[in-house]
Automatic annotation (TrEMBL):
Residues binding ATP, per UniProt: 25-30, 138, 187
Details of cofactor binding: Binds 1 Mg(2+) ion per monomer.
The keyword Cytoplasm belongs to this UniProt entry's keyword annotation: yes
Localization, UniProt: Cytoplasm; Nucleus
Role summary: Catalyzes the phosphorylation of pyrimidine nucleoside monophosphates at the expense of ATP. Plays an important role in de novo pyrimidine nucleotide biosynthesis. Has preference for UMP and CMP as phosphate acceptors.
Keyword Kinase attached: yes
EC annotation from Swiss-Prot or TrEMBL: 2.7.4.14
Free-text domain note: Consists of three domains, a large central CORE domain and two small peripheral domains, NMPbind and LID, which undergo movements during catalysis. The LID domain closes over the site of phosphoryl transfer upon ATP binding. Assembling and dissambling the active center during each catalytic cycle provides an effective means to prevent ATP hydrolysis.
Taxonomic placement: Eukaryota, Viridiplantae, Streptophyta, Embryophyta, Tracheophyta
Quaternary state and interactors: Monomer.
Any single GO CC term annotated in Swiss-Prot or TrEMBL for this entry: nucleus
Organism (species): Apostasia shenzhenica
Positions bound to CMP: 106
The protein's name: UMP-CMP kinase
Length: 208
């Protein structure tokens, strides 16, 4: 499908998008699974799509792998193409886009290409010490080959830095448009989901 056609079909469908943002280890993936179960959204993790792209042996694979290992942000066109493709192939009209946009350029390019404005941004606010603890723990439980090779202390520190410098400005942008729904993410997953439910209640239960 041509680029313009892809964007057009998503627009025609009036696809609803919620961006799920927060630092590495803030609980985005865990809470997205809960939202999918109760509110009928489809979860698209930009990081998971990029990791799948590496595994598929794509020509960009090595570049993506190196950038992830350094905690750097993969060029927008790569990530946006994967997100757009996943939305079209899936066919749902409600998506949680997790871990994207990671910088202002990602954000502007996504808007430009898809013409989609998010309904709102779900922001998981969590102190760095707590996120670090969770990431290191995750890497211990899911030890190689399942553990992620960016969940080591050097890469984690780089990811925190990129989050503060590049991703927080995206959240600021949406604050200025009154589109941020902030949740205190430094609590148990169940407690966090209680807050999340309140935010999504207007979307109604699944299948309704
Ligand atoms: N990444 C990227 N662009 C994206 C999403 C992810 O470049 O839109 C890369 C980036 O290098 C990031 C890594 O993938 O550090 C892991 O992202 P993921 O969202 O899976 O990690 P999380 O923040 O959830 O721990
Ligand atoms: Mg994640």
């Amino acid at each position: 499908m041509a680029k313009e056609e892809a964007a057009g079909s998503l627009r025609e469908k009036n696809v609803k998008v919620v961006f799920v943002l927060g630092g590495p280890g803030s609980g985005k993936g865990t809470q997205c699974a809960n939202i999918v179960r109760d509110f009928g959204f489809t979860h698209l993790s930009a990081g998971d799509l990029l990791r799948a792209e590496i595994k598929s042996g794509s020509e960009n694979g090595t570049m993506i792998q190196n950038m992830i290992k350094e905690g750097k942000i993969v060029p927008s066109e790569v990530t946006i193409r994967l997100l757009e493709k996943a939305m079209i192939e899936n066919g749902n009209d409600k998506f949680l886009i997790d871990g994207f946009p990671r910088n202002e350029e990602n954000r502007a390019a996504f808007e430009e290409v898809t013409k989609i404005e998010p309904e709102f941004v779900l922001f998981f606010d969590c102190p760095e010490e707590e996120m670090e603890k969770r990431l290191l723990n995750r890497n211990q439980v899911l030890s190689s080959p399942h553990g992620r090779d960016d969940d080591n202390i050097e890469t984690i520190r780089k990811r925190f830095k990129v989050f503060l410098e590049s991703s927080l400005p995206v959240i600021e942008h949406y604050y200025s448009k009154a589109k941020v729904r902030k949740v205190d993410a430094a609590r148990s997953a169940d407690e966090v989901f209680e807050s999340v439910k309140g935010i999504f209640s207007s979307f109604g239960p699944k299948d309704s």
